[in-house]
Amino acid sequence: MKTKKITGKTKFDKIMEINPDAGMILFEHGLHCVGCGMASVETLEQGCIAHGMGKKEIKELIDKLNKKKKNKTVNEKKPIKKIYLKIWKLAKPYYEKGRPMDIDHIKWMIQDALIVCQKEKIDDSLLLPLVILHDVGYGVGEKVYFNKDLKHKHMKIGAKIAKKILKKVKYPKEKIKKIVYYISVHDNWIFGDNEIYKKDIILGTFTDLDYIWMATPKGFPIFMKILNKNSKEMLEYLWTNEKLKNRSFVTKTTKKIYNNYVRDRKEEMKK
Q1: What are the angstrom distances between the C-alpha of 98 and each of 10, 92, 235, 251?
Q2: 10 CB contacts (<8 Å, ≥6 apart)?
Q3: Do residues 233 and 190 touch, judged by C-beta distance below 8 A?
């Protein structure tokens, strides 16, 4: 059977099907189009041109996307991906009962969390379950965005649900304990507790990604509506938020991801 090739005409949502490692390669070229709402209609060439890339750069990117990695067995990542899919399958019903944005939020976060884990050599066996399960508490009880009392409640409920799900998929006991703890405190920034994110790379990376969601193609308009801001005001909110001062980005990769998304939102405003 002939292997499919990625070309300039390949749409972004098909690129990952052809090359599962494409997300990392695209990220290195400043492209986050795989998770964009236009992924099913925009081609690789169109996305590259929109980001100011010339013909030579586009050709080099296509060659890189089609290049096979050496020393990589077919089944190398299957066990890891399978367990995350099991966790997601059990978590999804809670998100379907939660806030309208939650499923898109988690799907995006999984994608970029995997990129950060690869680039920064962060333990995905802790970060990915945290990413997948952190907001399951919204599937039970009241929906909330910035209320302190309800935030605390959602973390407490979420930790219990997460523990139940992780036990069901027979996740390692010592990792369940850590992940459940992370979920029980993941929004503690709202109480002024910023030190926990600086002391723990998993929590720090998580809070970076959770914040970056507001700058993504889907997250940006959602939070414009929640915060009652126009595009310009939303960008100012992102640039002046207390997070950047009190919980600065813990890795170069999360900072780069954030800057890329903000750059894209600025470019959109010019059109």
Answers
A1: 34, 10, 26, 30
A2: 18, 43, 44
A3: no
Tokens 């492209």 label which residue? 31
For the chain, which residues make up each domain, given as ranges? 12-66, 78-270
Question: What band does 150 get if pLDDT is binned at 50, 70 and 90?
Answer: confident
- What phi and psi values does residue 50 have, to the nearest 5 degrees? -65, -25
CB 257: neighbour CB atoms within 10 A?
A: 24
The Cα 162–Cα 180 span in angstroms is 6
Rounded to 5 degrees, φ, ψ at 11 are -75, 150
Q: Which parts of the chain are beta strand (E)?
A: none
Convert the pLDDT of each residue in 199-247 to its tens digit: 999 999 999 999 999 999 999 999 999 999 999 999 999 999 999 999 9
Instruction: Please determine, looking at this structure, whether the domain spanning 78-270 carries the CATH number 3.80.10.
Output: no
Q: Report the distance separating Cα 56 and Cα 65, nearest Å.
A: 14
Joined together, the tokens standing for residue 90 give: 């059990």
Query: Which tokens belong to 222?
Result: 């959602």
